[in-house]
Amino acid sequence: MVGPDAGGQQVVRVVDTVARFGGDEFVVMLAELDVDKVESRAQAQLIAEKILASLSAPYVMSHRKDGGTEITVEHHCSASIGVVLFVNHETPRADILRWADAAMYQAKDAGRNAIRFYEADGENSVD
After folding, report:
1. pLDDT, tens digit, for every residue of 91-114?
2. Is 11 a domain residue?
3. Is-contact 113 52, C-beta < 8 A?
4. Catalytic residue among 24, 66, 95, 109
5. Whole-number Å distance between alpha carbons of 3 and 8
6. By the 8 A CB rule, do 15 and 2 touch?
7. Cβ–Cβ under 8 Å, residues 91 and 66
8. CATH code of residue 41
9. Residue 4 carries which DSSP code?
């Protein structure tokens, strides 16, 4: 996802970190967001939407078995994205991951292909 996606647009920035967390879960750490919470939320929303759009694009795969006929398959993927905003090291990592996981499950409960932000008051916002 770093670099251009199929549409030629940057999905995440060079300063961001993408890591496989386990199974089919990934963590994307966005660096250098605006210090203003409203603006940083808008920046995170935009990047999450780009990730969602990139993952939602169909994957076309071709396979030729033993020199036979080539088989082409189009695969569609859905994603559920949970987002937590935090400042530097003020919040323990375990809490950040737990809150992001909770927001992700809210997105899954919404029918997938959704983005949810974890809010400090315990409510997950609908985006």
Report:
1. 898 999 999 999 999 999 998 899
2. no
3. yes
4. 24
5. 8
6. no
7. no
8. 3.30.70.270
9. B
Domain for residue 79, yes or no? yes
- Reported as type and span, the H/E element at residue 59 is strand 59-64
Q: State how far the alpha carbon of 49 is from the alpha carbons of 12, 72, 84, in Å.
A: 11, 28, 15
Q: Is 34 helix (H, G, I), strand (E, B) or coil?
A: coil
Question: For position 10, what pLDDT does the model report?
Answer: 75
Geometric angle at alpha carbon 23, from 18 and 29, rounded to 5°:
20
Among this protein's residues, is 109 annotated catalytic?
no
Q: What's the predicted TM-score (pTM) here? A: 0.79
**Domain presence at residue 127:** no
Amino acid in the structure at residue 23 = G
Place of tokens 């919470």: 37
- The answer to whether position 12 is within a domain reads no
Number of independent structural domains in the chain: 1
Phi-psi category of residue 88: left, alpha or beta, with phi > 0 → left and psi -120 to 50 → alpha: left
Task: Count the residues in the chain.
Answer: 127
